[in-house]
Amino acid sequence: MDIQDDKVINCDVLVVGGGPIGSTAARFAAKNGVDDVLVIEKRQEIGSPVRCAEGISLTWLDEVEIEESDHFIKKKVKGSKLYSPNGNKMTIGKELAGDEVGGVLERDIFDKEMAVLAGREGVNFMLKTAATDVIKENGKVTGVKAKKMGEEFEIHADLVIGADGFESQVGRWAGLYEQIPSKDIMTCFQYRMVDIDIEPDYTHFYLGKVAPGGYVWIFPKGDDKANVGLGVQLNQLDGNKSPKDYLDEFIDSHEGLKKGQAVDMVAGGVSVGHPLDSVTMDGLMMVGDAARVVDPLTGGGIANGMKQAKIAGEVAAEAVEKGKVDEDFFSRYEERWRDRLEDKIWRNYMAKEKAVELSDEEFDKIIDALSEVDLTELTTEAILKAVQKKYPELVESFKDML
Predict the structure, then answer these.
(1) C-beta neighbour count of 27 within 10 angstroms
(2) What is the pTM of this model?
(3) Considering Cα of 181, then 270, then 376, then 357, what sign does the dihedral take?
(4) What is the number of other CB atoms lying within 10 angstroms of the CB of residue 49?
(5) Do domains 2-50+109-180+275-351 and 74-102+181-271 have the same CATH topology?
(6) What are the boundaries of each domain within the chain?
(7) pLDDT tens-digit readout, 121-144
(8) Residue bearing the bigger pLDDT, 322 or 402
(9) CA dist 358 to 209, 353, 399, Å?
(10) d(CA 217, CA 66)
(11) Residue 184 has pLDDT above 80, yes or no
(12) Is the pLDDT of residue 367 over 80?
């Protein structure tokens, strides 16, 4: 990091956002040869406050070169249980359950550990530093304007990576995308609860009108404690009930939860839209939630974001080395992450669009049908074919997905 004067800092790669996705992009850029990588984070502490349900699969950690550790994995689970509105239940082993089932993190510790891994590769971090605008020259992003402790300055970089999450300003300032439609936003509310009675070896998901357009989750963090939250599709809220109201009603109706105590709470939004046409422009790459790669069906973003971030870091290193930090060169980043992630994101987006139209009675039938079959894979197609055997009329509107 070269400090030209009090008002200008120069670096090779600048990452805006110090979460696990920003740290991962920075780590792989440095690991692949970039000498001067800087991460700026607007908060004073990486990983805090936590804004995450904390459930993940553990199967993809190897892909981004992370070793499992009890240091940040609070609880491992056997699988997941899905509940329909009338109480029909389906159990799914963790090997089939996708990127949101397998373990429950301590996200603040996990985020810090990802920063440690980046730091060991030589990445510099600057905390309590907020980007306030992008700098563009002749249509190319060349850095950001920033503020730290009231002091304003500029950071110039060969390449900027936007990893500033769902509320990403970097992408908007650069002109990459517009406002997200309300049907593609999930607004979430969660308690951490103690003194509750649940099955602690499973994550639990409740479908239907208990969380319109979304679901309720219970992610265990011990025998008598768990993250209990929900996501509600923004355009399903009419102003009469908030996500907190929906969650409080659910807890009051659940025998194992209503006697418990909430020891903290968190609220936030998640984008559940389809993939963007482009997440790059000259001088800029976007990653993670800021690149809209959250799974639209589950709302989970860590797995997709970190897989994408590794690719971004590798391509960033190549681009800086060759002096080709332009949209044409970044096509190899677009191609690689889309080959890895895009098909599933699109399939789950289409499934989400159909699922929000289902009634409680239809959810009852779906879980009833699935509880009677032994699925060997948990794909949209496999689920629909299983439901079709018992309730063919229910699958009629999903024909185009078979």
Answers:
(1) 29
(2) 0.92
(3) negative
(4) 12
(5) no
(6) 2-50+109-180+275-351, 74-102+181-271, 356-401
(7) 999 999 999 999 999 999 999 999
(8) 322
(9) 10, 10, 15
(10) 26
(11) yes
(12) yes
By the 8 A CB rule, do 23 and 161 touch? no
Residue for token pair 């970039």: 34
Residue in this structure with the two tokens 């510790």, named with its chain if needed: 109
2-50+109-180+275-351: CATH topology: FAD/NAD(P)-binding domain (3.50.50)
CATH of domain 74-102+181-271: 3.30.9.10
Residue with tokens 């109706």: 253
Secondary structure (DSSP) of 283-303: TEEE-GGGGT-S-TTT---HH
> How far is CA 183 from its chain centroid?
17
Provide the 10 A C-beta neighbour count for residue 133.
Answer: 14
Query: Cα(42)–Cα(125) distance, rounded to whole angstroms?
Result: 11
- The three-state secondary structure class of 158 is strand
Confidence class for position 401, pLDDT limits 50, 70, 90: low
Distance separating alpha carbons of residues 9 and 161, to the nearest angstrom: 16
Angstrom distance (rounded) from CA 38 to CA 361: 52
